[in-house]
Design a protein that fits this description.
Number of domains: 2
Order of helices and strands: HHHHHH
Keywords: Membrane, Transmembrane, Transmembrane helix
Radius of gyration: 30 Å
Number of strands: 0
Number of helices: 6
Largest sheet: none
Length: about 110
């Protein structure tokens, strides 16, 4: 196996892309080949630096939407629409309108 092939194999091994015979070969090389092990450490260091970012959590509504698409919704879609943060003003207005309507009906029944 040539140097370039070892470098590629070490990179693929560092990214956990190998399966079957290639994986067995990479593990075998890592156990005894000093050059392969140093290439593997170089790749692991490169990928660690490249992907060393703070984790970012998606907003709750996006997370719920993705989970609903993957696992199925745990509540009806209309609840997601009304309870979404951008629709809270509409929800408050609807609840207030209903309260006013109920109060008007009670006033009309008691008042007459």
């Amino acid at each position: 196996m040539g140097r370039d092939e070892k470098i590629m194999l070490a990179g693929e091994y560092a990214l956990d892309l190998l399966e079957g015979e290639d994986l067995r070969q990479a593990r075998d090389l890592a156990s005894w080949d000093v050059d392969f092990r140093s290439e593997l450490e170089r790749w692991q260091g490169t990928f660690t630096e490249m992907f060393n970012v703070d984790p970012v959590s998606p907003p709750d509504r996006i997370r719920r939407s993705v989970e609903a698409r993957i696992f199925g919704s745990s509540r009806p879609a209309w609840q997601d629409i009304f309870l979404a943060p951008e629709n809270r003003g509409t929800l408050v207005a609807v609840v207030c309108a209903k309260a006013i309507l109920i109060a008007a009906i009670i006033w009309m029944l008691i008042g007459s």
